Amino acid sequence: MKSVLFVAYQSPAGSIWINETFRSAFGMYGEELEPVVLFMGEAVLAVRANCKPEQLGCLPLSITFKYIARYKTKVVAVNEDLERFAIAEDGIEPSWNVTRISESELPDFMHAFDKVVFF
Amino acid sequence: MTLIVVKKSPENGISNRLLKVALPSDTILLVQDGVLFAMDKDLESKVTQGVKLVALKEDFLARGFSEADSSIPLVDYNGWVELLEQNDKVIS
Q1: Range of the structural domain that residue A13 is part of
Q2: What is the CATH number of the domain that holds A85?
Q3: What's the domain range around B28?
Q4: Cβ-defined contact of B17 to A40 (cutoff 8 Å)
Q5: Tally of domains within chain A
Q6: pLDDT value for A28
Q7: Which PANTHER family does the entry link to (chain B) (predicted)?
Q8: How confident is the model at residue A1 (pLDDT cuts 50, 70, 90)?
């Protein structure tokens, strides 16, 4: 089983990349590939409970929740980015089931994967 | 032994964070607007010691620079293929 890390780093409002990251990750199941999704930079805004890109006519992020739950897709967010955008624990949407990682852990974390793709 | 491919310009924050992810046995290849990093004479000091830095010659020249303008070695497309073969993982 190979492991693939999908890194979203662009804002969820006004760009397709958060949904595209998960569309690609979910496509890995059935193959011998285990996907993990990492939010860095402005992409961490996606985990906010009231982040609703659909208000701008974009795809809702909530369409991923059913599959995250079904596949138990691991979602990780960088601590320093969450703090930079003032995202507190009680402001995070539980459906992401997000775990945290610190900036200093990123080099080893990324090198542990067989493939890393930035979206 | 990981090849890290940087595509975005120094103006884009994610590129600088990618540089910081490199570990001593890695190679960083700058392509597309990432080649603009090659203008920085202090680039070597901004990555972990032991990281190899190269830029793609075709992209660098296409942006109007000459080879002498680069602060790091340049490789061509064939060189890129060799880097892919030499490294067992890719971060891009």
Answers
A1: 3-118
A2: 3.40.1260.10
A3: 2-91
A4: yes
A5: 1
A6: 86
A7: PROTEIN TUSB
A8: confident
* pTM for this model (two decimals): 0.90
When scoring B2, B8, B14 by the number of chain A Cβ atoms within 10 A, the one with the most, hence best to mutate, is: B14
Residues of chain B that touch chain A, judged by Cβ-Cβ distance less than 8 Å: 2, 13-14, 17-18, 20-23, 89-92
Of B13, B20, B92, the CB nearest to A117: B92
Q: Which two tokens stand for residue A22?
A: 């998960």
Does residue A44 have a pLDDT over 90? Answer: yes
Q: Which of A63, A66, A64 is closest to A37 using CA atoms?
A: A64
Question: Cα(A36)–Cα(A79) distance, rounded to whole angstroms?
Answer: 17
* A vs B: CB pairs below 8 A: 34
| CATH code, B13 | 3.40.1260.10
Tokens found for residue A6: 């999908």
Number of independent structural domains in chain B: 1
pLDDT tens by residue, A50-76: 999 998 888 999 999 999 999 999 999
Sign of CA dihedral A52, A49, A63, B92: positive
**Helix (H) or strand (E) run with residue A58 in it:** none
Contact (CB<8Å) A107/B90 = no
